[in-house]
Write a structure and sequence with these properties.
The chain has helices spanning 19-30, 46-53, 69-79, 107-135, 154-170, 211-214; strands at 10-13, 34-39, 59-63, 87-90, 138-143, 179-185, 223-225. By secondary structure, it is α/β, with parallel strands linked by helices. It starts with 9 loop residues before the first strand and ends in a 9-residue tail after the last strand. Bound molecules: NADP nicotinamide-adenine-dinucleotide phosphate (NAP). NADP nicotinamide-adenine-dinucleotide phosphate is lined by residues 15-21, 39-41, 44, 65-67, 91-94, 116, 143, 145, 186, 188-189, 191-194, 198.
């Protein structure tokens, strides 16, 4: 792979406090990339910020509930006053309760899943794309899921399908701009969201999760599967 040099660039990672987002932050820092750590409360990322800084990178921390559109707007506005964001990992997401009564999935589950997993994600993309296009370089990685055939988790599943559709329908606008937008399927991992029965450790998301941030070959609108790279060097 022809690798981009991301040393000194700034990445925004949503849902940085634990699980996959935390691994992505650690991976980016090892490549010298500065990181904006997002979660719902700055106290959730303070330890990680110190750890990343010990790798010699700079960090910023920002809090916003992605289910609250005012907080998302405030976050985006606050970030526009800081260093330019070159890389965005839209990683934060929620999965509503498993609904055994699959014909009665609450509408509220759909509403909140779309608010956090789709609307906030799109708003973040729309906010940072213009600056990336102006500067001629950007990487947007939207985290999706391979979930299938589980109508008990349909609110989550359809929200991820909407993320896929958003990416596929938008990438044409980015052609030739130097801004690449792709999808990342981390695989089923043992995290708070993935649960204890998942077959893969959270660490196995690296190095694959970094591939869409490091590519220089113009690929956009592609699904990267982190598990395809597990145990390899990139
Ligand atoms: N784990 C899997 O097996 C798996 C499989 C396929 C796809 N994925 C996807 O991978 C991504 C990360 O999943 P994960 O397993 O790492 O999840 P996780 O361990 O549950 O972590 C979720 C992260 O999102 C943040 N978050 C949750 N609700 C939020 C909200 N309303 N507003 C803002 N931030 C919020 C959390 O921050 P706080 O500290 O504020 O709680 C936390 O940092 C998600 O997009 C998920 O759909 C995961």
């Amino acid at each position: 792979m022809n690798k981009a040099n991301i040393k000194g660039k700034w990445a925004l990672v949503t849902g940085a406090s634990r699980g996959i987002g935390k691994q992505v932050c650690l991976g980016l820092a090892k490549h010298g990339c500065n990181v904006v750590l997002h979660s719902r409360d700055i106290s959730h990322t303070s330890e990680l910020a110190k750890e990343l800084e010990s790798h010699g990178v700079q960090t910023r921390q920002i809090a916003a509930d992605l289910g609250n559109s005012e907080q998302v707007s405030k976050m985006v506005a606050e970030l526009s006053t800081g260093p330019n964001i070159d890389i965005v990992y839209n990683n934060a997401a929620i999965m509503t309760q498993y609904c055994s009564d699959w014909l009665n999935v609450p509408s509220e589950d759909l509403r909140v899943s779309f608010e956090v997993n789709v609307t906030a994600l799109m708003k973040i993309c729309h906010a940072f794309i213009p600056g990336m296009v102006d500067r001629g370089w950007g990487r947007i990685i939207n985290v999706t899921s391979g979930i299938a055939d589980q109508p008990e988790l349909i609110a989550y599943a359809v929200s991820k399908a909407a993320v896929d559709k958003f990416v596929l329908d938008s990438v044409g606008k980015l052609e030739g701009t130097g801004v690449l937008m792709n999808l990342l399927d981390p695989g089923w991992l043992r995290t708070d969201l993935g649960g204890p029965n998942a077959p893969n450790s959270v660490e196995s998301v690296l190095p694959g999760a970094l591939v869409p941030a490091l590519i220089e070959d113009g690929t956009s609108g592609k699904l990267f599967r982190a598990q395809d790279y597990a145990g390899t060097e990139i």
